[in-house]
Amino acid sequence: TEAVCALHAIGSPGGSRASIAAAVRQLVERQALVEISNAGRVTERYHEATKLMPGDRSASTGSESRGSAPPSTPSTSLPEPSSPAMTLEAAIDIRRSSEAFSTLPVQLADLSFVLQMAASNDALRRTQGVRLFAVVHRVAGLEPGVYEYIPSAHGLALLRGGALVGPMLKAVRQKLAGTAAVGLVMAAQLSGGASPLGERWYRDLLLESGAVAQRIYLAAESAGLAARNLAAFVDDHFNEKLELTRLGLSALHLTAIGNGN
Questions:
Q1: What is the three-state SS of the chain?
Q2: How many Cβ atoms from other residues are within 10 Å of residue 181's Cβ?
Q3: What is the Cα 94 distance to its own chain's centre?
Q4: What mean pLDDT is predicted for residues 223-241?
Q5: Per-residue model confidence (pLDDT) at position 97
Q6: Those residues with Cβ within 8 angstroms of residue 197's Cβ, 6 or more apart along the chain or in another chain
Q7: pLDDT digits (tens, 9 = 90+) for 88-100
Q8: Among candidate residues 199, 218, 53, 69, the one with its CA nearest the CA of residue 131
Q9: Looking at residues 77-96, what average pLDDT do you find?
Q10: pLDDT value for 37
Q11: Phi, psi values for residue 183, rounded to 5°
Q12: Can you tell me the mean pLDDT for 23-32?
């Protein structure tokens, strides 16, 4: 009862576009003929399950999720970031996932810029409930630890202090989690607080987390840093070590930033 979501053709440059298009068309036509007993066509079922319906936008952008602890009062004020010399178009053009980080610390002003670009503009939010945390390993002028970014104050609230390179490596199981200067974690409360959008809200949380991650990429490039999405982590261990569980939150996504190597 599965449906093809996407088909990606891979090959040497110079292949015929017409032949690729024909292959895609034949695949879709064959799939449209597949019948599932008493359930309709697979493709139609896929479209039905994933379509977006018109609705009241206020339901998606209302109050913060219920059941999780409210954000703390900032303990560290972030410097006001300056505008980077790089244009948005240039950042989009060079945006890449870093394959390695150096162990050099990043500057607090650069982290300030990345956080501001990632999560300070309410107009860009698809839904409320996603909170941004910084797992700091090496930032000049900032002690290692887990901090929550408070957009309204443009500051950081300390959640737990101390070096977390070891726990990050154990939870993420990728060396980049330890060599990056900062791990930026998007988290939300996933249970115990019903949303007006029902189950669709979970998808909106994932979309919002992805959008935040993409802004982190562009901001990092603009600041002369590098970024890398690290999608796989051991959820329970990760949430516990970062003390997200204490706040009633679960990690949704992790983007590492640092100096490129």
A1: CCCCCCCCCCCCCCCCHHHHHHHHHHHHHHHHCCEECCCEEHHHHHHHHHCCCCCCHHHHCCCCCCCCCCCCCCCEECCCCCCCCCCHHHHHHHCCECCCECCCCEEHHHHHHHHHHHHCCHHHCCCCCCEEEEEECCEECECCEEEEEECCCCEEEEEEECCCHHHHHHHHCCCHHHHCCEEEEEEECCCCCCCCCCCHHHHHHHHHHHHHHHHHHHHHHHCCCEEEECCCCCHHHHHHHCCCHHHCCEEEEEEEEECEC
A2: 26
A3: 19
A4: 86
A5: 85
A6: 55, 59, 60, 127, 204
A7: 888 888 888 888 8
A8: 69
A9: 85
A10: 47
A11: -105, 120
A12: 67
Task: Give me Rg for the CA atoms of the chain.
Answer: 21
Please count the other Cβ atoms lying within 10 Å of the Cβ belonging to residue 207: 13
Which amino acid, 67? G
pTM > 0.90:
no
Tally the residues of the chain.
261
**Tokens standing for residue 141:** 């002028």
Nearest-angstrom CA–CA distance, 162 and 241: 11
Nearest CA to 112 out of 260, 216, 230 is that of 216
Token look-up 């901090």 returns 147
CA distance 162 to 141: 14
